[in-house]
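Q: Joint fold for the lines below.
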Amino acid sequence: MDNFAFGLIIAITLGSALMVVVSKQLLYSAIALLFTLFGVAGLYIFMWADFMAGVQVVVYIGGILVLLIFGIMLTNKISSVNISHTSLQRGIGAVVTLGVLGFLIPMIKNTSWMQVASIEPNQTAESIGRLLMMDFLLPFEVASLLLLGALIGAAMLSRNTN
Amino acid sequence: MDNLQTYLYISAILFSLGLYGVITRRNGIAVLMGVELILNSANINFVAFARFGGMNFSGQVFALFVIIMAAAEAAVALAIIINVFNNLDTVNIDDARELKL
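A: Joint structure:
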């Protein structure tokens, strides 16, 4: 049962990721991205990172994906019902992609990865919170500054000046 | 399911798909989707190494920072794309190659 669920999640993740990059309709790409992000959240759960899975759903699906769909809606005329988009340089793209994949897959296969046996943690949110507030306090504050800057920058950029 | 390589393979394939999207797409928003795929594959790697390196939570914290960065990046990139659309009437990134109008 576990293996079946795992295989299903991998299939959903990779299949819809393929849809994202080959689909002719921009909105279909966005919907396929939804399933990819859900699949990645499922993979997080298999890696005992349930807090990360929650953050993935809330931030990626609830935030970034909605933003992307807003972008699609705002950058198309209402008359152009068929929001299509084309790809170009498919050949070059496939060659580069397969080159990268042909480099990565044997590398992963041939490296002897050191794995440490570990037990399932009782709580993840508490440990992450402790790390954020103690070991990673400075990056945490810098990240909040980055978010503030990005917020102000995005509002300034998208304001209609004329 | 319980070995590191499986997750690294998934992440490598996801990265390649994202790269393919970034190379072949012409619409700015579709390119952004490819970037999101690449960031997700990096996140899978972070969490997988954390899980199989003795359940170290630092990897998950790094993945959290990557998600924060992705949110900021998506907001600014979409603002830029909407600006490009308002000025040039297209979101085709090949047409937006000049800095000045």
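Q: Anything notable?
A: Helices of chain B lie at 4-24, 28-52, 58-88. Chain B has one domain: 4-88.
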